[in-house]
Design a protein that fits this description.
Layout (H helix, E strand, L loop, with lengths): L1 H11 L3 H21 L10 E5 L2 E5 L8 E2 L10 E4 L8 E6 L2 E8 L8 H17 L5 H6 L12 H4 L7 H19 L3 H20 L3 H29 L6 H21 L1 H4 L2 H15 L4 H8 L4 H9 L5
Parallel strand pairs: 1-6
Antiparallel strand pairs: 1-2, 2-4, 3-4, 5-6
Helix pairs in contact: 2-3, 2-8, 3-8, 6-7, 6-9, 6-11, 7-13, 8-9, 8-11, 9-11, 11-13
């Protein structure tokens, strides 16, 4: 009976190839994450893997609704399983039980060909788990005053930002153009000039919306834009060791520029908050061009990227 039970539990675990991929993804965040963000290597990597046959929870204490499996020798994690409750294409991080940002991701359709891309997408969600553990992060989100009557975080997705207003679309199209100029700049002087032009366009966009709307923009820049920058940097770091990540690193960076061009062509009303991810990634690149010091300030004030950009272009005190 014991042998039969052991065989049943082993058969219920995700395939070895998937568990190896999870191991490799954790290794990326542990090896390269701390070089970007102190403490990134210490996140618990609580993760729900979604497959057609069910969902497997990795690296978490026993949780109601899941049945325990054996400890996984490949990932080094505990495993628990339940029937599937999430869509197969999910890639997100949100509160589950005592975890403020559970990584919840669908398994790649083709583990071989999508291995590197999937790993970096999971690393993006892992950074949200890191963000949720920054000092008073949840309180700082609440202090934005944007939740209204929403008690489940839905406002983060459906906040009524005036995407379709012509003046707002025009202002953000100008920001995208300046962001592209920064990405195309070849010298430090050209980059400084591009940053100054971008910050000026950013102030014009701020004037086109309400204070609450701008707080939503700063929230998305701080939460999703910086996560987008982080996954680009992690892909580049992984590519320096493993050639399988070179294409992903190139695509992640080129994808920022191509997305900005698409926002300019299709309009903010089409891209909505998705445009903020790309603009936020560029804003992080701008700050990083001046050195890594901005990251310590971000940890203290994650929704103050605009203040850091203003300080970057302001003349030094006499």
């Amino acid at each position: 009976m014991a042998l039969l039970l052991s065989a049943m539990l082993a058969a219920a675990a995700p395939p070895v190839a998937l568990r190896r991929l999870i191991h490799d993804t954790r290794a990326i965040t542990r090896r390269d994450g701390d070089a970007l963000w102190p403490g990134f290597a210490r996140i618990p990597f609580h993760m729900i893997l979604v497959e057609r046959r069910g969902e497997t929870l990795f690296c978490h204490a026993p949780l109601a609704g899941f049945r325990p499996l054996r400890r996984d020798a490949v990932t080094g994690c505990t495993m628990q399983q339940r029937p599937r409750a999430n869509p197969l294409d999910i890639s997100a991080a949100f509160p589950v039980a005592d975890e403020p940002a559970m990584i919840v991701v669908g398994a790649p359709a083709r583990p071989g060909s999508e291995r590197a891309r999937w790993a970096i997408e999971v690393a993006h969600e892992a950074f949200h788990q890191y963000q949720a553990r920054l000092p008073d992060y949840a309180a700082k989100v609440q202090a934005l005053g944007l939740a209204g009557s929403s008690g489940d975080g839905a406002w983060m997705l459906d906040y009524p930002f005036p995407y379709a207003q012509p003046a707002v679309e025009a202002a953000f199209a100008a920001m995208c153009g300046r962001a592209l100029a920064f990405l195309q700049a070849l010298t430090p002087a050209a980059r400084r000039q591009a940053i100054a032009a971008y910050v000026a366009a950013r102030h014009q966009a701020r004037a086109a919306v309400s204070p609450a709307d701008w707080r939503y923009y700063e929230f998305q820049i701080g939460q999703e834009g910086v996560a987008r920058w982080t996954d680009v940097m992690l892909a580049q770091a992984a590519a320096r060791r493993d050639p399988r990540y070179k294409g992903v690193a190139r695509d992640r960076l080129e994808g920022v520029a191509s997305s900005l061009k698409a926002v300019m062509r299709q309009g903010l009303r089409v891209w909505k908050r998705g445009a903020f991810y790309e603009l936020g990634a560029v804003e992080a690149m701008m700050l990083d061009s001046g050195g890594p010091g901005w990251r310590a300030a971000y940890r203290d004030k994650p929704f103050g990227i605009g203040d850091q950009l203003d300080a970057m272009v302001s003349p030094p005190p006499a």
